[in-house]
């Protein structure tokens, strides 16, 4: 690991994974300063870090889909004041509905953000590293649950994929194209379903946030790879300090059938016939509700996978520190929880 202090910027720092990562890096002596960027006001949890003359955390409110605001952030704002040399780009993950809202140009927000962040990192001389969080659901899934995926596994380029899944693939390919850049070190971390400390699920392709329903195709119960949010933050921190370019699968040691995962998360697991799902997806497309199609169609509703994380272990030093399993809620029901190994 490099011993040189880092000046780090974190995007979507006001969302759950971002808040946890800010706290983790604030107590990292190898991080000199942190510029947290969010779309809303600074979280109250940051108050104690932003007080006093020697504070190491600043917060900027920026809409990362707006070209001018991102340009000002990189070239006329606090990024230069902090001397940021490493950018950690977290995708938005606290949305109440599946999918990524499309901008006026028709390009999903997630894709627009990734393109702008990458463009300005390439153009800003002081920024020497970009670490981005991506999705493991970009991989092509073969029928069954035996998919063991490495970083070299084929991406799913089916043109009929739901728009939300396509946006993950577009972001992945944008970043992948700069992996061998001589000036900017680019690390892309592909993660499966992320499990929060309170049992909330993030970055899954069927539902997220406050929507409590888990639709799946009748007759299928795909295995879902999992990772704890604390382990995601550990992997991001390791990537910043290792400064290794490349793509890395990040996952915990556990995986669960979708029916069990949704049940333990307090969702309603709803198996529906394939023709009904396809009909509903077609209706969603006609009504312009493409965001809902992700939860209605796609190979992730039928086929499961696990991730080979050997590259992250050898090159980043990543090892899961949390076990994911079932606990008990106050009323005695099984609930998903993370416990330290």
Folded structure, characterized:
The chain has 341 residues and is an alpha/beta fold. It has 9 helices and 17 strands. The chain has a 7-stranded parallel beta sheet with strand order 3-2-1-4-5-7-12, sandwiched between helices. It is globular. The two termini are 23 Å apart. Mean pLDDT is 87; it is low at 208-212.
Q: Roughly what is the average pLDDT, rounded to an integer?
A: 87
**Unreliable parts:** 208-212
Distance between the termini: 23 Å
Strand content: 15-25%
Rg estimate, integer Å:
20 Å
Largest sheet, spatial ordering of strands: 3-2-1-4-5-7-12
Please outline the major beta sheet: 7 strands, parallel
Assign a percent range to the helix content. 25-40%
Q: What series of H and E elements makes up the topology? A: EHEEHHEHEEHEEEEEHEEHEHEHEE
Structural class: alpha/beta
Tally of helical segments: 9
Number of strands: 17
Instruction: Indicate the overall shape.
Output: globular
Write the layout of secondary structure elements.
Layout: E1 6-10, H1 16-26, E2 31-38, E3 57-61, H2 67-75, H3 78-82, E4 86-89, H4 109-123, E5 129-135, E6 147-149, H5 163-176, E7 185-191, E8 193-195, E9 201-202, E10 213-217, E11 223-228, H6 229-242, E12 246-249, E13 255-257, H7 258-264, E14 268-272, H8 274-286, E15 305-307, H9 310-316, E16 322-328, E17 334-340
Parallel strand pairs: 1-2, 1-4, 2-3, 4-5, 5-7, 6-15, 7-12, 8-11, 10-14
Antiparallel strand pairs: 8-9, 11-13, 16-17
């Amino acid at each position: 690991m490099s011993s040189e202090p880092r000046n780090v910027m974190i995007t979507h720092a006001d969302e759950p994974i971002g808040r946890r990562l800010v706290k983790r890096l604030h107590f990292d002596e190898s991080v000199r300063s942190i510029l947290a960027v969010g779309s809303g006001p600074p979280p109250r949890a940051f108050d104690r870090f932003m007080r006093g003359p020697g504070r190491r955390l600043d917060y900027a409110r920026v809409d990362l889909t707006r070209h001018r605001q991102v340009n000002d952030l990189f070239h006329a704002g606090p990024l230069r004041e902090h001397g940021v040399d490493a950018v950690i780009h977290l995708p938005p993950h606290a949305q109440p509905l599946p999918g990524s809202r499309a901008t006026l140009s028709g390009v999903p927000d997630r894709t627009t953000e990734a393109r702008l962040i990458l463009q300005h990192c390439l153009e800003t001389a002081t920024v020497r590293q970009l670490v981005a969080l991506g999705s493991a659901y970009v991989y092509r899934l073969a029928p069954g649950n035996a998919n063991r995926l490495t970083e070299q596994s084929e991406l799913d380029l089916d043109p009929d994929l739901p728009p939300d899944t396509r946006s993950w693939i577009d972001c992945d390919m944008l970043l992948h194209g700069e992996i061998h850049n001589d000036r900017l070190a680019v690390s892309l971390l592909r993660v499966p379903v992320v499990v929060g400390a309170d049992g909330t699920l993030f970055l899954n392709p069927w539902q997220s946030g406050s929507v409590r329903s888990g639709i799946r195709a009748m007759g299928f119960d795909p295995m879902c790879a999992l990772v704890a949010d604390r382990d995601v933050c550990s992997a991001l921190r390791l990537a910043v300090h290792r400064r290794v370019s490349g793509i890395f699968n990040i996952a915990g040691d556990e995986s669960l059938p979708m029916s069990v995962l949704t049940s333990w998360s307090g969702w309603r697991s709803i198996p529906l016939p394939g023709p009904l799902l396809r009909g509903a997806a077609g209706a969603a497309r006609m009504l312009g509700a493409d965001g809902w199609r992700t939860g209605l169609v796609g190979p992730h509703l039928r086929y499961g996978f696990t991730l080979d994380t050997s590259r992250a272990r050898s090159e980043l030093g990543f090892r899961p520190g949390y076990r994911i399993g079932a606990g008990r809620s106050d009323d005695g029901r099984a609930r998903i929880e993370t416990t330290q190994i």
